[in-house]
Design brief:
By secondary structure, the chain is of the alpha/beta class. It is built from 14 helices and 22 strands. A seven-stranded mixed β-sheet has the order 14-15-16-13-12-18-19, with helices on both faces. The chain has a six-stranded mixed β-sheet with strand order 9-8-7-10-11-21, with helices on both faces. Helix 2 runs antiparallel to helix 5 (155-167) and helix 7 (207-216) packs parallel to helix 8 (229-242). The longest helix is centred in the N-terminal third of the chain and has 22 residues, at 97-118. The protein starts with 7 loop residues before the first strand and ends with a strand. Bound molecules: nicotinamide-adenine-dinucleotide (NAD).
Length: 475
């Protein structure tokens, strides 16, 4: 499979760029143009809305067992094409092929799981006097407007499509403009597996234009967004004008607490891999490292050594451990955050610069002794930057970890059972990894607290977020 021509999917038809505004799609490893992306105009959005309205009526009446069959076939479609689809995703997003393959398998599992879980959207019957009853039933909420970002171009669309479709909703998805073909592949998997026309529509364009148009339509009953906290707040305002439900997966700034009694080798190998996965462009990426004094110097030195040894390159090439940033905007963000931290007195342990070659490559970077007022201590870097600070006591570490308005992921490393229990209770985050960085699984709720958003994806919570509860009392 070659990199495809980009098309929207509106009311059962693939719609290309002819006669529409468009923008180039770039390969982040080379900077070269690889495709042209069509922008949806008002007529396209109107058609997608009408299609979603009709698609919902059809799909809500389709038994959950039949919906599950479509989602399972779509999962198998993707698994059968793992190498081809992974090449397409890596070409447009940059991450190493090995990472893309894992993402694809997780995306397939997600589709299959939502189909299965949709079969278990059970209600209940409440005890009432003979001859009367109260039923509690779960129904799909209605057409969903979903916005997926570019960092997991297969995984994000699969989560949003899987939840809505598994619950019996229709969905209009706006995938990322920077990595649009991956979502097309997930869409193809569903279409070729028998998804009826109207259940899924896919549009691209200027994000603000599309979200304003869709969220103001009375057709849309729910917003699902993954992206930055700033954009999330803006979209919540739009959604509140019509009072619709929202699932918001927003920014993070994950703290990592490494205690003196931690298995340091385990902490190093897991956190180095996790920090530089997807060039740090991960909402749950470990970012603020708080290291207890007794192991601080050793941890910083060894982490930096391993970071600087990572092979950075084109994700399609054998041996690449870290690819480019997904788009040039991130390079400017790295430069400004690192310059600010150094001006504030932080020590640059390794990296800190753009790599001098075509494409958007940034060196794996470690900053130590970073003052609390440096911007990188509060702003999500969303890039390959780890910041390290020492701490003395448990309470001090928790205070620092919980200092920010974010609460998405948090990590801790310790071999003390008591400390492990206390840290799990004390950290303010929606997802906590203790002696592990593996916090994402299809049956585990994925979402944040505080300004990192609300509502979960995956798990029974992800399905529930696309359902409404209704009670029917009869005497
Ligand atoms: P951005 O804030 O401009 O965009 C983030 C995402 O939101 C993109 O996918 C974009 O298409 C979408 N978006 C932006 N404005 C929108 C609007 N008005 N309506 C609908 N969608 C809109 O930033 P960016 O430069 O693309 O990414 C960098 C920042 O985004 C990071 O700092 C990070 O906080 C955040 N981000 C978070 C995640 C995540 O998984 N939570 C993923 C990608 C980006």
């Amino acid at each position: 499979m070659d990199y495809p021509q980009i098309a929207m999917y509106i009311d059962g038809e693939w719609v290309g760029a002819e006669g529409r505004d468009s923008q180039p799609v770039l390969n982040p490893a080379t900077g070269e143009q690889i495709a042209v992306l069509p922008h949806a105009g008002q007529a396209d959005l109107e058609r997608a809305l009408e299609s979603a309205r009709r698609g919902f009526l059809l799909w809500r009446a389709t038994p959950a067992q039949e919906r599950a069959v479509v989602l399972r076939r779509a999962a198998d479609w993707l698994r059968a094409r793992v190498d081809d689809v992974a090449r397409i995703a890596t070409t447009e997003q940059g991450k190493p092929l090995a990472e893309t393959r894992i993402e694809l398998m997780a995306a397939a599992d997600c589709l299959e799981w939502y189909g299965e879980e949709g079969r278990r959207a059970y209600g209940r019957v409440l005890p009432r006097p003979p001859g009367s009853r109260t039923l509690v039933v779960k129904e799909p909420i209605g057409p969903v407007a979903a916005f997926a970002p570019w960092n997991f171009p297969l995984g994000n669309p699969a989560r949003k499509l899987g939840a809505a479709i598994g619950a019996g909703c229709s969905v209009i998805l706006k995938p990322p403009e920077e990595a649009p073909a991956s979502a097309m592949m997930v869409a193809r998997a569903l279409i070729e597996s028998g998804l009826p026309v109207g259940v899924m529509n896919i549009v691209y364009g200027v994000p603000d234009t599309i979200s304003r148009y869709l969220l103001r339509s009375p057709v849309i009953r729910k917003l699902s967004f993954t992206g930055s906290t700033a954009v999330g707040k803006h979209l919540m305002n739009l959604a509140s004008e019509r009072g619709i439900r929202t699932t918001m997966e927003l920014g993070g700034h994950a703290p990592v607490l490494v205690f003196d009694d931690a298995d340091i080798e385990q902490a190093l190998s897991l956190t180095v891999a996790s920090k530089y996965r997807n060039a740090g462009q991960v909402c749950v990426s470990p970012t603020r490292f708080y290291i207890q004094e007794g192991v601080y110097e050793r941890f910083v030195a060894e982490f930096s050594r391993r970071a600087s040894a990572l092979q950075v390159g084109n994700g399609l090439h054998e041996g690449t451990r870290m690819g480019p940033m997904a788009h040039p905007r991130r390079l400017g963000a790295m430069e400004s955050l690192i310059a600010d931290a150094r001006a504030a007195g932080a020590k640059l342990e390794t990296g800190g610069e753009q790599i001098d070659r075509a494409g958007y490559f940034w060196q794996p970077t470690v900053l130590s002794d970073v003052p609390i007022h440096a911007r990188v201590m509060s702003e999500e870097p969303f890039g390959p930057v780890a910041v390290m600070s020492p701490f003395k006591t448990f309470d001090e570490a928790i205070e620092q970890a919980n200092r920010l308005p974010f609460g998405l992921a948090a990590y801790a490393f310790s071999t003390s059972a008591k400390q492990v229990m206390m840290v799990g209770d004390a950290l303010e985050a929606g997802m906590i990894g203790i002696n592990t960085t593996m916090i994402g699984a299809v049956d585990a709720p994925f979402g944040g607290v505080k300004e990192s958003g609300h509502g979960s994806e995956n798990a029974i919570e992800g399905l529930e977020a696309c359902l409404v509860t209704k009670q029917i009392s009869q005497a």
